[in-house]
C-alpha cells in the first residue's frame, strides 16, 4: 500500500496545480481590469451570475484597450519592432470577406503596442508626442467600446491613424531602423 500512495501523491499534486496554471496562462488582462471570481466564467451551480451586467468605464476613467500583457520581467517592445508589426497591416484590409473583424482588432492591437513602446522608449514621450496624441484621440473616439460594430464604424479613423503614424515615422528613420 505505501507504494501506491507514492504514485498517487504526485498525480494529485499535478491535478491540483493544473487549474492554477491554466488561469495564469489563459486570456487577456490589463492592469485596469483585474480578474476576480466575479468576472470569471459562471459555474453551472450559479446561473444568475451568467446574466450579471458587464461594467463599462466611466467617461472620466482612462480607457485602455485590453491587450495581452507581456510576461513579468520582459522588457517593453522596441519602437522599431512595434512599428514593423504595424506596417505589416498595409497588406491587409476589410476588403477580404470574413477578414474585417480580424483586421480591425489587429490594427488596434498594433497601434496599442506601438503606443506602449513609444511611452517606454528612451527617447521620451515628448519625442513621440504627435503619434501618441493620434492614438489617444483614437481611444477617445472609440470611448472604450472595442466591439466589432464600433471598430467598423470608426474603420476610417483606425486606418488614418496608422497612415499618419507611418508618415510621421518616415521623418524619423532613426526610430525604426
Report on the architecture of this protein.
The chain has six helices and no strands. With 177 residues, it is mainly α. The chain has a domain at 76-177. Helix 2 (79-87) packs antiparallel against helix 3 (100-120) and helix 4 (129-142) runs antiparallel to helix 6. The protein is globular, with a radius of gyration of 21 Å. The model is unreliable at 11-63 (pLDDT under 50).
Produce the secondary structure layout.
Elements: H1 2-25, H2 79-87, H3 100-120, H4 129-142, H5 148-153, H6 155-170
Helix pairs in contact: 2-3, 3-6, 4-6
How much strand content do the residues show? Answer: under 5%
Low-confidence stretches are 11-63
Structural class: mainly alpha
Radius of gyration: 21 Å
Q: Tell me, briefly, the overall form.
A: globular
Compute the number of strand runs.
Answer: 0
Helix content: 40-55%
Head-to-tail CA distance between termini: 66 Å
Give a quick account of the main beta sheet: strands, pairing sense, barrel closure. none
Give the overall pLDDT as a whole number. Answer: 72
Number of helices: 6
Order of helices and strands: HHHHHH
